[in-house]
Amino acid sequence: MSLEFFPLVIDESTGLHYYNVPVGAKIYRGDTDAYLNVQKMTYFAHNTQIANVYGVPATYSTTRELRLLALDKVENYVIFDTIDDAQFKKALKSSFNNGRSRDSDARSDKIVARKICELGYDGYATNEMPESGFDDDISEGTFHAELMICNAD
Fold it and tell me: What pTM does this model have?
């Protein structure tokens, strides 16, 4: 069972779905690096249970409001139609099945994260999604919620 995720909002001018992460929200990162290396594209969790799967959990607080593109909403994928980047589109389909399921693959995930950041978004988020091809200790057929934040430092 998941803990409450961040509110989903729809931008009235674009129709895009975002998860709204307010200033001061507690987010968590599990890491095996001694100094918890935060990079330009960094993954976080909304609870310690998920962060714990990835290593020693650390707590962070957001310093600004984040609007994270909801990659678990099929309606958002129309924005990628005009992008001429076959590698990105292949990675997006492989990792997110265009908003239908999640298959975490480090290479594909990195391609997707990099492009989302290049497009100027704060990052992306997904609530729990059906999993496809990934096995971890807590999924039970469902891939956990995740946050990917661009320029998280």
Answer: 0.84
